[in-house]
Amino acid sequence: SKNAIIIGSGIAGLATAIRLKAKNYDVSVFEANESPGGKLSRLESNGYTFDAGPSLFTLPSLVDELFEISGEKPDENFKYYKKNIHCQYFFNDGTKFTAWDDQDKFINEITEVFKINAKSVLEYLDKSKRKYELTSPLFLERSLHKVNSFLNFNTLKAIASANNLDLFDTLDEVNRHHFKDPRLVQLFNRYATYNGSSPYKTPGIMSMIPHLEFNVGTFYPEGGMYSITDSLYALAKKKGVKFNFNSPVDRIICKNGVVEGIITKNEEHSADLVVSNMDIVPTYRKLMPDQKAPEKTLSQERSSSALIYYWGIRKQFPELDLHNIFFSGNYKKEFTDIFDHKKVPDDPTIYINITSKEDPEHAPEGCENWFVMVNVPPNSGQNWDEMISITKKRIISRLNKFLDADIEKLIETEEMLTPITIESKTSSYMGALYGAGSNDRNAAFLRHPNFSSKIKNLYFCGGSVHPGGGIPLCLQSAKIVSSLV
Ligand code: FAD
């Protein structure tokens, strides 16, 4: 049988390995780190366990599918449940809002807290669903870049305008037209951050994202997000995928426009096809510096990055849930700081993820594991050390007010992740969370394709290429690669 080499074992690399194995390829994965998962990894510190990267899980069926195509029962191998609360929101003016999964409860709460009528919210979510359902099969589930495809960006644009998909207004404009209450505008603007962009720049079609949360649901994998990596790695191994850890790939070998293999640790490994799960920018710059790179695509603005403080907290907060948002007072300024001034916002929105709410063994008794994250620009040489300590003070002082506590005294262990360490741990260009950003309409829809148009048998998967970042889209990229192969 033919053999395939995958560079990297991020979620998309694992999914591609499983899919190609199911197509009877001999599959070898070469991973620079000592363990699989890339951004989807785990961190242990003084009795606390943290999911290091992604924390929100939507569209679990895309993970189930990998077990199904491999002839395994998903529910025996990967367990998850639907959350009854999507998120606890805390607004700067003291408003608290619980986003319930149950639609009646959700509508009750939103109409009571924001004094709006249910019809307006239901209309918004219906529209969100329609946008998703029209865009997904056209765009998220296949490659737009094949010349012989009847689909291309112009077709998408035509469909978008014919169906009023809000490709031409910003997300903020769409939300302000729909909601009068600035708190609701802020709540629905936040979905821009799900792909690392600004609501004041990204196209309004991104208002399809809440559909996934409110109409399909948010989920929690038993044991935490890392169970996704764990169970896919176990599945791949069981099916016979070979893994090589501590094996950074240095070169993709190409001859006469055809890929021939890779070089790692000064050794050549030949392959009939190669899939790079490494960020597309270093894939070109480091692994094939002699090939002509698609400069325009590589120069697309990067998505936001993050500062994350992993705190072991010596107390429990019943008012908090798995996902918690503490909104900034001036959302517009927050995004101007990030994308125009390229600095950590003075008053950032704070996200806290607490998996010990679901898995108590992730923290010692009576304690909680706080993953405290703020959105920041990708690394362009800022003075991070200075911003990290100022930001920590600001976060603590705001949380003290919101929660009426003395947080500083409760922190018994601290770890950190910054744009610089995100890049050094996963090769993400500039430490961006989602590859290219979606502030620009063209960048949002015209990312690097999942194949090379110059080199035969070379493919790309993961958050920096089509269709985009985040677990569901990374899984889609693996599916597209496998169908192109
Ligand atoms: P990555 O995870 O980027 O992994 C790439 C792998 O390739 C790494 O293991 C790396 O070591 C390896 N590699 C790179 N270069 C080489 C080389 N030369 N040789 C060998 N191996 C190499 N998404 C969500 O869906 N929900 C969220 O809530 C969410 N929150 C996030 C929060 C944070 C803090 C971060 C960092 C990301 C978040 N994301 C979220 C985004 C999500 O994590 C990513 O989109 C996704 O995990 C990226 O997967 P990937 O397959 O592109 O590969």
Mean pLDDT: 94
CATH homologous superfamily descriptor of the largest domain? FAD/NAD(P)-binding domain
Portion of residues in beta strands equals 15-25%
Q: What is the 3D form?
A: globular
Give a short synopsis of this structure.
With about 475 residues, this protein is an alpha/beta fold. The chain contains 18 helices and 19 strands.
Tell me what you see in this structure.
It contains 18 helices and 19 strands. The protein is α/β, with parallel strands linked by helices and 485 residues long. A 7-stranded mixed β-sheet has the order 7-6-15-16-17-14-18. A 5-stranded parallel β-sheet has the order 9-2-1-13-19, covered by helices on one side. It has a 3-stranded antiparallel β-sheet with strand order 10-11-12, with no helix packed on it. It starts with a strand and ends with a helix. Bound molecules: flavin-adenine dinucleotide (FAD).
Which helices and strands, and how do they pair?
Blueprint: E1 3-7, H1 11-22, E2 26-30, E3 42-45, E4 48-51, H2 61-69, H3 74-77, E5 80-82, E6 85-90, E7 96-100, H4 103-114, H5 118-140, H6 153-162, H7 171-178, H8 182-189, H9 209-216, E8 219-221, H10 226-238, E9 242-244, E10 249-255, E11 258-264, E12 267-270, E13 273-276, H11 280-287, H12 295-298, E14 305-313, E15 323-326, H13 331-340, E16 350-353, E17 368-376, H14 384-403, H15 407-410, E18 411-417, H16 419-426, H17 441-445, E19 458-460, H18 471-484
Parallel strand pairs: 1-2, 1-13, 2-9, 6-15, 13-19
Antiparallel strand pairs: 3-4, 5-8, 6-7, 10-11, 11-12, 14-17, 14-18, 15-16, 16-17
Helix pairs in contact: 1-10, 1-18, 5-9, 7-8
The structure holds flavin-adenine dinucleotide.
Residues 7-13, 30-33, 38-40, 53-56, 248-249, 277-278, 306, 308, 422, 426-428, 433-434, 462-463, 469-471, 474 line the site of flavin-adenine dinucleotide.
